[in-house]
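User: Design a sequence. Structure:
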């Protein structure tokens, strides 16, 4: 499959299905990652990933682990589709006469893919983080949480229900990503949804630069012959290995992005005025280990997510769907 020309609709279907399946499987770990990354020294609510998940189930129920999953499941299809299709597009145009790409060109293709995906990733992460972190703030404070007036208008009823919540379960029912997005657009316009764009680029571009060349080379090791594709299990393992390594490598950038995109702050939690201000405050108050918060969770999220993505992509689920169930104009 990797040696054939794959149509753009098939690439989009492969990436979309892979994203939905992967996110459904690993979203609770992603929630734990967000909450662990947003904890400050001396204000820890959770001791570890397992402690976070156990406390979340006790206080918010089983579905509390999936707070923010709806927005992720909605937008992960275009996000993963853009990422995989863009990387394939850049690799195709950087190759010459069918020859293999150099490592530098593979990294360049990954860079292009990372820059393309942030169009979807930034607002998706922005909305998801608000919903994921609400439970941590409620557990930390056990009292109404007031939104900083410099961030959003406090008097608004929608955001008050979302962030100034008492019982966690009722807060989850009172607000949705759609309501938060609408309020951000009304108060800050489109830039409100793209808060943390620079930090997202700082995370996703290096991730893609590391991931795609690493996956391509690991996957190449499993090919039985020069003109044959690697078996699906090897594609899965290669995706898992490359994804976990790339995830840990850029985790400091992910911590910065999470902190900058969190609109609501607990007592004693500082706000940030840009990337450099955020990084300097984390280093000064939490030390180098502050940038490693949630690294294990992130590796556990990304590894199966991209392993599943590569299996879908290389097995050719999209091609099968187009060949058997789609109108003829989609398979052009």
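Assistant: Done.
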């Amino acid at each position: 499959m990797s040696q054939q020309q794959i149509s753009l609709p098939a690439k989009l279907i492969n990436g979309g299905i892979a994203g939905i399946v992967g996110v459904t499987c690993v979203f609770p770990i992603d929630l734990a990652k967000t909450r662990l990354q947003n904890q400050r020294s001396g204000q820890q609510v959770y001791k570890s990933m397992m402690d976070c998940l156990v406390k979340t189930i006790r206080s918010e129920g089983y579905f509390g682990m999936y707070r923010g999953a709806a927005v992720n499941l909605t937008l992960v299809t275009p996000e993963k589709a853009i990422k995989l299709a863009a990387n394939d597009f850049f690799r195709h145009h950087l190759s010459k006469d069918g020859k293999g790409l150099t490592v530098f060109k593979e990294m360049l293709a990954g860079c292009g893919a990372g820059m393309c995906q942030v169009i979807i990733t930034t607002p998706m992460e922005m909305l998801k983080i608000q919903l994921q972190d609400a439970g941590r703030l409620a557990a930390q404070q056990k009292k109404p949480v007031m939104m900083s007036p410099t961030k959003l208008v406090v008097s608004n009823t929608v955001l008050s229900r979302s962030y100034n919540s008492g019982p966690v379960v009722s807060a989850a029912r009172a607000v949705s990503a759609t309501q938060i997005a609408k309020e951000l657009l009304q108060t800050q316009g489109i830039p409100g949804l793209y808060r943390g764009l620079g930090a997202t680029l700082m995370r996703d571009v290096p991730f893609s630069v590391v991931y795609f060349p690493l996956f391509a080379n690991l996957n190449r090791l499993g090919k039985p012959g020069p003109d044959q594709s690697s078996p699906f299990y090897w594609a899965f393992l290669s995706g898992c290995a490359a994804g976990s390594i790339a995830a840990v490598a850029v985790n400091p950038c992910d911590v910065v992005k999470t902190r900058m995109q969190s609109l609501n702050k607990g007592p004693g939690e500082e706000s940030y005025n840009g990337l450099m201000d955020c990084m300097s405050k984390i280093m000064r108050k939490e030390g180098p280990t502050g940038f490693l918060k949630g690294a294990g969770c992130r590796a556990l999220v990304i590894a199966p997510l991209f392993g599943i993505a590569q299996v879908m992509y290389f097995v050719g689920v999209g091609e099968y769907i187009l060949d058997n169930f789609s109108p003829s104009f989609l398979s052009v």
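The CA atoms of residues 45 and 155 lie 28 Å apart. The chain has a mean pLDDT of 81.
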